[in-house]
Amino acid sequence: MLVSSSGPTSLIGIIGNPLSHSLSPIMQNAAFAALNLDWLYLGLPVTDSSLKSLIKDLENIQCRGLNVTIPYKQSVAQLITELHPIARTTGAVNTLIRGPKMGWIGTNTDVEGFIAPLKMKSTNWKTKKAIVLGCGGSARAVVAALIELQFTSISVAGRKLVSLQGFVNNYKSFCPQLKYILWDRFSINSIEIEAFQQALKDADLIVNTTPIGMTKRQNTHNSLESPLTDLQLEMLKNEAVVYDLIYTPRPTLLLDKSVSKGHECIDGLEMLVHQGAASLKLWTGVKDVPINVMRDAALSYLRS
User: How many whole angstroms separate alpha carbon 211 and alpha carbon 262?
Assistant: First the structure.
């Protein structure tokens, strides 16, 4: 809790490293102002060695809540004793809320954030097939969301066999439809290439959770990459939806090319805004949070 001339100011923060790219302070402080809350949202850089002590120190100073971003979503899940079921399922925490007495409760609003824009495209994703590019912390929330939406087939593609096997094993008891595919953009292994291409052809939804295509500044696509080649994009169903969790640049090269081929596309800004709104509801208890204000603030910053 901070003290200003008008009285105590409630502190919310985001922990991670690096934080220079984060739009969360922009969005959340705009929302606090719209709700007339004397709250402040700060970026709180942390290191591996200081993570545990920082979380405890923030608890002691009555910090109202926290967001957690890369690379600490899984580490924080192991530090918090009370986890919401969705955080246990994903093994990752992106939001901390105060417990009724002391301590933190960890949850994951990335799942809700990912689902919200998909439901705007369709209310029924049952019997659909998805391929998820990457198997990091973001992919954990994506897969949990796809399970909730009752996709009948979910393929997770990545470069490292051990990581893929561990990822799939995390869900095997309740998600038999989840499988892994070895995927290296530069692979010459014909078996790997064929399996990946078949998953692309079958997919109703393609989700990029990798950083391929990300940039810190908005500029041209000349120096940017796409996780999928032009030939691979040609393999997609006409009705396939392409979802890229990256929001800078906007659009990414992947989405730019997908739109040109007639695909419906979703970028990472919508997920970011919706997960932020879900966190805000938990911290404030306000059901009708100003999501449009949050989106507009983020867009304004990206355009500046």
Answer: 24
Q: Which long-range contacts (CB under 8 A, 24 or more apart) does 51-55 make?
A: 51/15, 51/75, 51/76, 51/79, 52/79, 54/15, 55/15, 55/79, 55/80, 55/96, 55/104
Angle of helix 24-34 relative to helix 268-284, nearest 10 degrees, comes to 50
152-171 residue pLDDT tens: 999 999 999 999 999 999 88
Q: How far is CA 88 from the centre of its chain?
A: 16
Nearest of 250, 244, 247 to residue 266 by alpha carbon: 244
Q: Is the pLDDT of residue 7 over 60?
A: no
Catalytic residues: 73
* Domains of the chain and CATH, by start: 2-108+272-303 (3.40.50.10860), 111-269 (3.40.50.720)
Question: Does position 221 have pLDDT exceeding 80, yes or no?
Answer: no
Whole-model pTM: value is: 0.90
Q: Examine the pLDDT at 1 and tell me if it is beyond 60.
A: no
Dist. CA 237–CA 250, nearest whole Å = 23
Closest to 289 in 3D by CA, of 56, 47, 113: 113
| The three-state (H, E, C) secondary structure of 67-128, written as one string | EECCCCHHHHHHHCCEECHHHHHHCCCCEEEECCCCCEEEECCHHHHHHHHHHHHCCCCCCC
